[in-house]
Amino acid sequence: MAQVIISGTIKAVGQTQQVNDRFSKRELVVTEQGGQYPQMIPIEFKQDKTSLLDGYKPGDEVTVTCYVNGREWTGRDGVTKYFLSLAGNRIERSGASTGSPNTGGAHAAPPPTMADMPPITAEGEDDLPF
Description:
The chain is mainly β.
């Protein structure tokens, strides 16, 4: 699974959403100033990773380590679409040393697996998979 590191300023920190009894997520939006135009990059923290965002607020300078996830979805009309998302694994304030309290420790967690995803149910077939 591909891994990327994004550095920038926090634009928004979402509330933890309990999707179902076994799956929760929380969104972080980081503004990256890497080119002519600022990029607003949404990053999802899932399951036990949602608490990593506690203590962070808009305006904080951070470095986020993410895994790149891609998936395929075919709608009822037979059209197949592809989606890309970033799953946050680690966050630290820019210039912070590895192992600070909000980074989850000095070791990165293993990449997310299919077990981290909510189960697919028949009632959500015509909804997008996120």
